[in-house]
Amino acid sequence: MTAEFEQLMHDPDVQAERGPGGTLIFLDGSGYCVVGPEFVSVEESDCYAYGETREQAIANYAARIRVEG
């Protein structure tokens, strides 16, 4: 678990919820973002995904991890 992930997890402004596989899920603009425990930043990490709904973000994350992993 990275320091950046822990910061997101404890940031009251983000209001992140725990998701499958130890991920965090939070509202980001008009959609949802899912980040994995190894998340550092969008530029440096592959363990994140977006979606219009919570469910779509989780599915996009799962697909990305399968492809990248």
Tell me what the structure shows:
This protein has 2 helices and 4 strands, in the order αββββα. The chain has helices at residues 3-10, 54-68, and strands spanning 17-18, 24-28, 31-35, 48-51. The protein has a 4-stranded antiparallel sheet, sandwiched between helices. β1 (17-18) and β2 (24-28) form a beta hairpin. The relative contact order is 0.19. The model has no long low-confidence stretch (mean pLDDT 92).
List the helices and strands and how they pair.
Elements: H1 3-10, E1 17-18, E2 24-28, E3 31-35, E4 48-51, H2 54-68
Antiparallel strand pairs: 1-2, 2-3, 3-4
Strand percentage lies at 15-25%
- What does the main sheet amount to? 4 strands, antiparallel
Annotation field: number of helices: 2
Question: Which descriptor suits the 3D outline?
Answer: globular
Rg calc? 11 Å
List the strand order in the largest sheet: 1-2-3-4
Mean pLDDT: 92
**In terms of per-residue confidence, which ranges show pLDDT below 50 for 5 or more consecutive residues?**
none
How far apart the termini lie comes to: 17 Å
Please provide the ordered H/E string of secondary-structure elements: HEEEEH
Number of beta strands: 4
Structural class: alpha+beta
Keywords summarizing the entry:
alpha+beta, 2 helices, 69 residues, 4-stranded antiparallel β-sheet
In brief:
With 69 residues, the chain is α+β, with helices and mostly antiparallel strands. 33% of the residues lie in helices and 23% in strands.
